[in-house]
Every structure is written in C-alpha cells, then in structure tokens.
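Schema walk-through. Below, the input block comes first and the output block second. Nothing else is stored per chain. Lengths vary across the set, and this one has 418 residues.
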Amino acid sequence: MTIDSVTVEWPAVDRERAALWFITVVAVTGLLYVAWRYVGSVVLGLFVYYVTRPVLRRIDGRFESRTVSVALTLTAVALPLLFVVGWTFTILVTSVNDLLESDVFGNVEAFVQPYLDLTSLLSQLGAFTEAVIRDPSRLADVDFGSFAGDVVGSILGWVGVAVNVGIHAFVVLIIVFYLLRDDYRVARWARNTFVEEDGHLDAYFVRVDRDLHNVYFGNILNALLTGVLASTTYSLLNVFAPAATRIPEAAFLGLLVGAASLIPVVGIKLVTWPVGAYLLGRALWLDPDVVWFPIAFFAVSFVIVDYVPDQLLRPYVSGRTLHVGAVMLAYTIGPLLFGWYGIFLAPLLFVAVFEFGRILFPWLLDPSGVDADSLGQAEGAQTPSKPPSKIRDADISMTEGTQSLSAPVESDGPTVDE
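--- output ---
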C-alpha cells in the first residue's frame, strides 16, 4: 500500500511588498502613539476645526488664496475670544481698584487686631526698610535662603506651566490651520486610495463627519444663543431690581452663563447659584423686604436660561440624528474617564461607535442587505472631498505614468461642508 505524496506549493512572497507593509505598520503605530501622547491637543484641534469650518465656508471664495481665507477665519473666531478675555480683565482690574479704595481693609484690621497687631507689624517693616535704604549691607543680616528657594521654585513652576500650555496651543493652531486648508485633499486622497466612493466605508465617514459637525458646532451655537439669552434676561431683570440686589455686570454674567453651558450636568449652575446666593445674602443683610428678587432670579435662571435652551435650542442646533441624552451622557462620562479633554474625546468616540453600529456592522453581518447609496446620501450629508473655489496647477500632485487626482476646477464657491 503506497501513499502518494502531496506537494503543497506556498504562494510566492513579495519581499519588497512585505517590507513596505512592515514599514507602514510601524509608521502608523508611531503616528498613533504620538497622537495619543498629545490626544488632548489633537481632539481640541478637531473640535476647533469643526467650529471654524462653517465660518471658512462663508469666507472662502472671496479671496484668491485659500491660505488667506483660513487666516481670516481663525482671526474672526479669535477676536470674540480676545474681547471676552479683555472684558474680564477690565472688570477684574476695576473690582480690585474699588476694593482698594473702599474701607474693607479697615474692617479687616479691626477683625484681626486681637490676634495680629498689624499697626506694629507695618511700623517694624517701615523701620527695616528705612534702615536698609541708609545701609544696604543690612540685607545680609536677613536669611533669604529658604524663602528665595520657594519663590524661585514657584516662579519656575508657573513658567513651566505657561510654556506647556503655549506649546499645546501652538499644536492646536497647526492642526486647525492645516485641516481647514487641506481637508478636501485628505478626503480626495482617501477616496482614491482605500475608500470606494459611495461605498459603505465612504457612507460611514460621511455620516461621522456630519454628526461631529452637529455635536461640536451645534453645542457651540447653543452656548452662544444661551449667552445672548442670559445677557438679555439679566439686563431686563436689572430694570426691576432693587438697589441692594442689582445683578453685578449683567451682560458679562450672561456670557459666563453661555460658556458654562458647555460643561456637562452642572452647566450654568456653576454661575447662577453663586450669584443667586450672593444676591440672597445682600437682601437678607441689607433689606429683607427685597428678598423676592433673588427668588425671582433663581426662577428665571432655571426656567428661561436653563430649561428653554436645553429643551428647545440644543435639540434643534445639534441635529436630530443623535439622541440628545446619549450625547449628554458622553459629555458627562468623558471628563470623568479621560480628564479635561474627555469633553471633546468622548463625543468623538460615541459618534464613531454609533455610526459603526448603524452602518458598518449590519453590512458586516449581511453584505447584501444594506444599501450604501441611501446611507451616504441621507439628509444631504457630504464630506469635504471636493476642492475649494480655485485650485492651481502647482497644488495638484502628479506622478509619472499616472493621472492627477483632480484637474484644475473653477467653481462659484467652496464645497467644504459645514
């Protein structure tokens, strides 16, 4: 009995392609590692990109250079922020000046006098200063060792924090600038490389892009509308407010309420509750007959400033394809799980997983049961895949033996989707 030998022929291995695949895996792994090390800056840059992209759509096409349009977009977005920061600094300086000119320090001295003789301490300090002016060598008698070390350490620590924040801000600026300028090129390269146009993967990225726009830009728009509503409401309340319980800086307080509405769960309560407690304390201390106004402030803040935007504005400006409760849950869990950048990363992960389960997972289970065209064209969703208003020949890469990705195109306006 003989058994015929069976020869198994293994497919030939293209060593060059295998080496290139290995290099590709290493490069992608390195990029993912760097992105994760700076994940806060990356997701913050992505957030700012989706916030500024609709502004670019309004500006682009009016200038010859797309780079100029992007620079003007970033400037237009930064100016309101600089205005709010300058306004805050002005209010702070004014408040400190009013505090210094008031008699509050006299009250503080009267309070601490039984425990600390401020008058004697100030006189001794003045005598020492006068002695040092007459004889600077007296400074050698003072031991500045530990004190100077603590001061220098604190200064270096704050300088280090400032430098670190500046570096991350610069990284965010670079990410936003080049995403705004070259997003259509990235989408076009993907569709010509590994994504089949109008396929399931293309439909997935289209819907993720649209949902991220709704989640990011929609919440910023909701914060702006909430700030305007709060500023108007508090300014009108001040018309009827008694002198003892006037709302301090009503317009500026409204802007703070709008910014606080971005914070999950607590939201505007971080601003309205302390201010309401302050007004209630002044009413009880100065004139108990006007205690009605702090109560009215709490009621108006809850109904008009908090409830109305959350129930009417947020679902409208954030779109109706995502469950509002699920999005707010992502905003809530994100900071608890990842830290400060979780407020941007968690919605991104939620959208990616949600659309994967809605588009790609059913297709994986039954490739013939899902129509990619209907998914990709749903509700007019588009990705920034087409070039802007003008593309010059120098911007289009060409290689030997291949055609360019796209010929120069003239159109009336940009095709970058909001």
